[in-house]
Amino acid sequence: MSSGPQTRNQHAVDAEIDHITLSVGDARARAAEYVERYGFEVIAAGETPEFTAVAVGQRDTVLLLLQGLTDDHPSTLFTARHGDGVSDIALRVATPDPTVLQAFGDVTHSFVSRPAGAPWSLPGIAPVRTEGTTETAATSAPATRHLLRVDHIAVCLETGELDGTVEFYRRTLGWEVVFEEDIHVGAQAMQSKVVQSPNAGVTLTLLQPMSGAVPGQIDDFLKKHGGGGVQHLAFAVPNIVDAVAELGGSGVRFLSTPDTYYEDLHERLGSSGYAVAELRKHSVLADRDHDGELFQIFTRSEHPRRTLFMEIIERRGATTFGSNNIRKLYEAVERQDLA
């Protein structure tokens, strides 16, 4: 892990997510999927002898689909090791900085400074007018734009790497842990620590398997991905029932939830912003913490390795991450299997 320049150790760094780079084997095809299924629109594109790039945006979220065209391009090397996946989480900061930090696994942090309201661009990647198309990637979104922003990014780490990764963020960016817990699901167990920028513009949920526990979903990701990396991106929405209904109609495939999960949901949550019947119809999970309610659902991974997936999340005051849902869903599946 690179510690970056020593000046970064002097103060905490406020940051927002400028964009998330996904290294992919086919940038145009992947961009078209985000446009058609999630309601993004193409905002920039570029092609050089080294790469093809398409940037898709929706409100404050920009995903950069980057395809290496040479054997030694970083995106080519990344996809050879991991398949398509998040390779860089670019941080928007006040002062331009050419530093690139090696964060975890093969994922980096680059730093971007751009004027407010300026068209999104990077060297070799120019803004695209909203009318028309860029070959197979349509620029305009056919679906309603439900996604507000990136709520958090979930990261899987090898056992023993969690504390070192937390220290890396403290040392280089001055980010601190805002939430932590151990999650036990049957004989499986994982540790979670959430690091966040001081302005809450970037939230990373760091997960590692607990030593000695039965292997679970984190171990499965690490094996299939080939080490630590981004497991899922969580997108905030204003109304999860409307979002899931429309995204599902656009081709996004969500994980189903067994009916047994909802048997005691009213007793667990009390009065809720959604009727239990609505949540059951759309397989939405619900949780409550001391600050409010949280509703979430996960997509089925479309990745050939079954690694990267997405989360749709609505917060009504809640500040935690739905760990009770992991336990309750596990128990619901067990009840269903025994029925």
Relevant CATH superfamily of the largest domain: 2,3-Dihydroxybiphenyl 1,2-Dioxygenase, domain 1
Number of DSSP strand runs: 18
Mean pLDDT over the residues: 90
Low-confidence runs:
1-10, 132-136
- Structural class call reads alpha+beta
The major sheet is characterized as:
8 strands, mixed
In what order do the strands lie side by side in the largest sheet? 6-7-5-1-4-3-2-8
CATH fold naming of the largest domain = 2,3-Dihydroxybiphenyl 1,2-Dioxygenase, domain 1
- Order of H and E elements: EHEEEHEEEEEEEHEEEHEHHHEEEH
Number of DSSP helical runs: 8
Form type: globular
- Beta-strand content: 25-35%
If you compute it from the alpha carbons, what radius of gyration comes out, rounded to the nearest whole angstrom? 20 Å
Indicate the percent of residues in helices: 10-25%
Can you tell me the number of structural domains? Answer: 2
What separation lies between the terminal Cα atoms? 49 Å
Q: Architecture of the largest domain, according to CATH?
A: Roll
The CATH class label of the largest domain is Alpha Beta
Compact summary:
This protein is of the alpha+beta class and 339 residues long. The protein has helices at residues 27-38, 74-82, 162-173, 217-225, 240-249, 265-269, 276-282, 323-338; strands at 16-23, 41-47, 51-58, 61-68, 85-92, 100-104, 107-112, 126-127, 133-134, 137-138, 149-156, 176-185, 188-196, 203-209, 229-236, 285-289, 292-298, 309-316. The chain is 24% helix and 35% strand.
